[in-house]
Amino acid sequence: MVRFRKGIISLVSYFPLFFLVLALILHFVFGFHYVVILTNSMEPHINPGDLVIVRPVEEVSPGDVVLYRLELQGTEYRIIHRIIEVRTDENGRIYYVTKGDNREYTDPWRVYPSQIIGKPLFVIPYVGRLYYYLPLGVTALILALIALVGYELVKTLLDELEKTEKESISSFKKLGEGYGLRSSRRPGKGKF
């Protein structure tokens, strides 16, 4: 029983490290992106401080929420808004009209298919605040330290529990021997 508990606890204590490794694999191998929401433009579905995990997609259509790149005055931004309409520019190229769910007006720029990064796969509420306020390396280090410290604490507690359990069994056996009781025979050992 103690061994089972140790296994479960050590598994749980490594979850932060597991999720960090998973996030890196999803990003570098499968092209997933992670975006921390800074504004309320997509409320109530996506709120400031939420971490959004975005998967790459080939096709989008009106009604889809998308993450896209936008360059304004030499600075690149990543924006998550909903596609409202598909239009064609004066050169015959398709572009999208986008809008935040919490806005009454559409965005004043054109979003071309080459700017689309992907669609949100899921939203993790409030986690983005940690990600936003700390650099990625510091966040990873903190999560790894929490996992290691948690593992060591749990391991120490379980070792103490196992030690106490063994002492209890030992004292019970000694108590039984004092009353002339023998420990029960194991199957297949000894004679009748």
From TrEMBL:
Pfam family, one: Peptidase_S24
Gene3D superfamilies: Umud Fragment, subunit A
Stretches that traverse the bilayer: 12-37, 130-154
Localization of this protein: Endomembrane system
Domain of life: Archaea
MF terms in GO: serine-type endopeptidase activity
Keyword DNA repair: no
InterPro entries the record matches: LexA/Signal_pep-like_sf, Peptidase_S24_S26A/B/C, Peptidase_S26, Peptidase_S26B
Protein name: Peptidase
